[in-house]
Specification:
Blueprint (H helix, E strand, L loop, with lengths): L2 E2 L3 H9 L5 H4 L1 E3 L15 E4 L2 H16 L10 H15 L8 E11 L8 H9 L4 E29 L5 E32 L2 H8 L7
Parallel strand pairs: 1-5, 3-5
Antiparallel strand pairs: 2-4, 4-6, 5-6
Helix pairs in contact: 3-4
C-alpha cells in the first residue's frame, strides 16, 4: 500500500520550527494522561534500540494479550508490573518499574531518514513531560509512495468584440494541474516511546499502583 510522503515543505517546516514534527504529529498519549497534569521537563535523553529487539518485545506482548481473557485495564497490578518490566528490559531503560511512567508512543512511516538524536525528538519528549525518549528505526526497503507532479498547459483564445469581429490580440491562460504519481522510495518505520521517571511515592499516587502500559 502506498505510504504518505513527508513533503519537502513539511520537512523544511520541521527544521525551521513552527510546525509539529512527525514525532509529535503521530503521538498517542497514554489514556491516563487525560486525568493528570504533568509538568514539562527541561530536556530528555534519547535511547536508540534496535528494531529487531523492540519488534520481538511487541510480538511477545501481543501474544500474551491475545491469550488473556482480561482487557489491559483489567490486569492485576502484579501482572501489569510484569509487562512494564518487559518493556523496560526491551528498551534498555535502567529504571525500576516502581519509578517509571509510560506517557505514550508515536509510530509512522517516512521516506526521509530522520536522526533519532535530533533536537526535535528530545524537545518533544520533554514537552510532554518525558525524561527518556526510546527510538527505534526499521528499514523497510522500497515502498510505493504517492507524490504529486504538476502539469502545466497554456491555452490561447482569440478575442472578439461585441459585434463578433475578431480583434488582433489573443488571451493566454495558464492551467496547473496536480497529478498523483506512484513512485518507489526507500522507506523507514519509526517508533518513539516516551517515559517519565519519578520517585516511587509519586508514581504510586499517579497510577494507583497499576502501571501505565503502552
Amino acid at each position: 500500500m502506498p505510504t504518505r510522503l513527508l513533503t519537502p515543505l513539511f520537512v523544511l517546516c520541521v527544521f525551521l520550527g513552527g510546525c509539529a514534527s512527525p514525532w509529535e504529529e503521530h503521538f498517542r498519549p497514554a489514556r491516563q494522561l487525560a486525568s493528570v497534569d504533568l509538568s514539562a521537563r527541561e530536556t530528555a535523553r534519547v535511547i536508540e534500540v534496535e528494531w529487531e529487539r523492540l519488534s520481538a518485545y511487541e510480538r511477545e506482548a501481543r501474544e500474551r494479550a491475545i491469550n488473556r481473557d482480561e482487557r489491559p485495564d483489567q490486569l492485576e497490578p502484579s501482572e501489569a508490573q510484569g509487562e512494564l518490566v518487559a518493556l523496560l528490559d526491551a528498551t534498555r531503560v535502567d529504571a525500576s518499574p516502581a519509578n517509571a511512567l509510560v506517557l505514550g508512543s508515536s509510530r509512522f512511516l517516512s521516506t526521509t531518514l530522520l536522526d533519532p538524536y535530533d533536537h526535535a525528538v528530545r524537545a518533544f519528549a520533554a514537552k510532554v513531560g518525558g525524561d527518556v525518549a526510546v527510538v527505534s528505526i526499521e528499514p523497510l526497503g522500497l515502498r510505493d509512495t504517492v507524490e504529486y507532479a504538476t502539469r502545466t498547459e497554456w491555452y490561447e483564445r482569440d478575442v472578439y468584440d461585441r459585434t463578433g469581429r475578431r480583434r488582433g490580440d489573443r488571451i493566454e491562460r495558464r492551467v496547473d494541474e496536480s497529478i498523483p504519481v506512484v513512485v518507489p522510495r526507500e522507506t523507514w518505520g519509526y517508533t518513539l516511546i516516551v517515559l517519565r521517571l519519578e520517585d516511587e511515592e509519586t508514581v504510586r499516587a499517579l497510577t494507583g499502583g497499576r502501571p501505565w502500559l503502552p
